[in-house]
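Q: what sequence does this backbone want?
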């Protein structure tokens, strides 16, 4: 199987699995229990994991709240932040190319009378910062902006540093879904002004069912109050209750540690693999091929291609026992891509588009073989 669907999920790194196993076997204590070693050991290990996640993102450890993943983090921030504002003032601004866990949450909030603005995007799915500024300059206190850092279907990057800056100038809270960029792009220098961030371990060779919501402190060192999505015993600094998923947290920590250690190398490998893939695709399919993604300002390793006249579902099924490919997000795979639609593609064009997403574990040989298979050689 040639696995080219790394935006959907990635394989667990062997070091991650090794780090997790003791916490499913002998180290089974509950980190919230007190006064005995079995609990204290796990507590120490989860705090180390928190440190590694914080290091990868460029925030403090106590700003990391473990959740079940980005879907939960996105829900928690959008619902929980708007809940703290006066009902009459609530305003949410998102782009049309957000992940379904943001778009569907925005629609839910709209049904609860939150005013939602859906920003248009350019032909590669990026937000226009001038349009954003025009919207937020008139916003009241009580507003939240949520813009995806890098898109899961096209790889397009928004200029998060500048967007965060704008939100700071106009005193509006800013959240970003960084699920697809962590581990592929070094985000640490663009975090100034980002107040909330969502991320997920399984996109960076960690386990599924664990992620984090970053809640950064303000200039006075205070974290914004966010109404929890999950109430209970007050774990995770009172932001997210429930017994910690310790083995998953340890796995996330290890994946983050490796991701940071190898960030430059990973970025470079993905660029090289992508450029080889693009060259090969052009060689084989120049007559029917076009790219829905930009070739710069993007996450390396994610491309979105249109094969005119080809049905994407048919193609993916045909190759399904040898290659893993996607027509778009796995989280909304039953519907035509809202991301490509908002970039201006027709239904017919969407139906002939395929997302190819690489990891650093893919090889040049796999790419060559994949292109041959695609060409029916
Ligand atoms: N946001 C983006 C951009 C994603 O790509 C995904 C995963 N497809 C999610 C959110 C949801 O993440 P999780 O699977 O951790 O819930």
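A:
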């Amino acid at each position: 199987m040639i696995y080219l669907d790394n935006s959907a999920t990635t394989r667990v790194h062997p070091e991650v699995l090794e780090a997790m196993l003791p916490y499913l076997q002998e180290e089974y204590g509950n980190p919230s229990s007190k006064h005995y070693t079995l609990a204290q050991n796990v507590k120490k290990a989860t705090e180390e994991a928190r440190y590694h996640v914080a290091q990868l993102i460029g925030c403090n450890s106590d700003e990391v709240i473990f959740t079940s993943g980005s879907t939960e983090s996105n829900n928690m921030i959008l619902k929980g932040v708007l809940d703290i504002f006066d009902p009459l003032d609530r305003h949410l601004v998102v782009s049309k190319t957000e992940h379904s866990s943001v778009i569907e949450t925005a629609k839910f909030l709209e049904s609860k009378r939150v005013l939602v603005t859906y920003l248009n995007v350019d032909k590669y799915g990026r937000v226009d910062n001038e349009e954003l500024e025009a919207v937020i300059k008139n916003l009241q206190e009580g507003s939240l902006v949520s813009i995806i850092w890098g898109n899961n279907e096209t790889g397009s990057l928004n200029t998060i540093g500048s967007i965060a800056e704008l939100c700071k100038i106009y005193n509006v809270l800013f959240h970003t879904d960084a699920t697809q960029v962590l581990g592929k792009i070094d985000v640490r220098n663009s975090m100034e002004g980002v107040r909330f961030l969502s991320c997920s371990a399984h996109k960076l060779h960690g386990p599924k069912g664990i992620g984090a919501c970053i809640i950064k402190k303000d200039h006075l060192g205070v974290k914004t109050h966010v109404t929890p999505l999950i109430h209970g015993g007050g774990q995770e600094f009172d932001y997210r209750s429930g017994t910690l998923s310790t083995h998953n947290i340890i796995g996330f920590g290890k994946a983050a540690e490796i991701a940071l250690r190898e960030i430059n190398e990973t970025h470079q490998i993905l660029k090289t693999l992508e450029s080889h893939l693009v060259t090969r695709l052009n060689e084989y399919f120049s007559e029917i091929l076009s790219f829905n993604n930009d070739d710069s300002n993007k996450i390396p390793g994610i491309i979105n291609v249109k094969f005119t006249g080809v049905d994407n579902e048919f193609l993916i099924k045909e190759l399904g026992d040898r290659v893993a490919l996607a027509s778009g997000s796995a989280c909304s795979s039953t519907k035509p891509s809202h991301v490509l639609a908002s970039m201006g593609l027709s239904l017919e064009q969407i139906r002939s588009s395929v997302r190819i997403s690489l990891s650093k574990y893919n090889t040049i040989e796999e790419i060559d073989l994949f292109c041959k298979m695609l060409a029916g050689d």
